[in-house]
Amino acid sequence: MREGGRGRGFSQIEPAQTVASPAGAEFGPQPIRAPTRADPSPYPPPARGGGTIKESAPILVVRGLSVPGHGAAAVTDIALEVAPGEILGIAGIDGNGQKQLAEALAGQRPASGGTVLLDGRPIERLEVGARRRLGLRYVTDDRLGEGTVGAFPVSLNLLLKQIGEPPFWSRGLDRPDEIDRNARALVAAFDVRTPGIRTPVGRLSGGNIQKVLLARELSGTARVVIYSKPTYGLDVQNIVAARRRIRDAADAGVATILISTDLEELLELSDRIAVMSHGRIAGTVANDDRARQRVGELMIGAQP
């Protein structure tokens, strides 16, 4: 594990730097993000000790997970595990089964085989809401098409996966005071820049829509969070803020799967990095000084 428990910090990144790594490890030339002061975190400061993450039992264990695709399996025989407070990065060229894996773990896509254990409990047959109530959350890469309803107000989008549930609904009727109270608290905690909590979320900037998603998925009893390209399409300031939220949540004990096509992001945040290719995990490496090279080798077919 690198200094500070993750990859390099923001202060080591030069705004003008670009990367064109051998073996396609950067998934094409990628700009390294400039440092910007991030928003304050709503999470308590970390209580890390030496080896805390490595010594913790995994909270999420996946074995033999396969997901059907069009004519062939989209995901085949996936095995992974994540401990509380750990960030497992998943690298790979887009379209190699990452989204199907994320959706299957979240319960949005049926699996054709394998087991998914959360705290030792099988959840592969549970629907999305049941997995969410157990603490498994998913931040999609499609903010407007899937993650939010553009015509709905910010307040309802913050509860999009809890509609009909108490304390925000009672006997089929909404409770506006509770809905508004929740929205005001999350808008403040996650610095969502909006004219008001009843503003349609589709009128917000991409960065603020992403803040709504992060607020919804990181609030409450989040224990495992799966992120699919969480900073894609954001400006520099919102990239830095989103990465800080991801790191802070992990420091507060959330087990994290971070799917990204930006290797710099994975190196900055992850404890370990798995490489997906053709719907399989080609190998997993520690995020150490050789991580960049090993990820590149795995992407071109070297043995782990």
UniProtKB/TrEMBL annotation:
Keyword field contains Nucleotide-binding:
yes
What Pfam families does UniProt report for this protein, alphabetically? ABC_tran
Q: Know the name of this protein? A: ABC transporter domain-containing protein
Ranges for the region named Disordered are 1-53
**Looking at the record's lineage, which domain of life comes first?**
Bacteria
What PROSITE patterns does UniProt report for this protein, alphabetically?
A: ABC_TRANSPORTER_1, ABC_TRANSPORTER_2
Kindly state which keywords UniProt assigns to this record, in alphabetical order. ATP-binding, Nucleotide-binding
Query: Is DNA repair given among the entry's keywords?
Result: no
Return the InterPro entries for the record: ABC_carbohydrate_import_ATPase, ABC_transporter-like_ATP-bd, ABC_transporter-like_CS, P-loop_NTPase
Which residues are in the ABC transporter domain?
60-303
Which GO molecular function, any one, fits this protein according to its record?
Answer: ATP hydrolysis activity
UniProt-listed Gene3D superfamilies: P-loop containing nucleotide triphosphate hydrolases
Segments forming a coiled coil: none
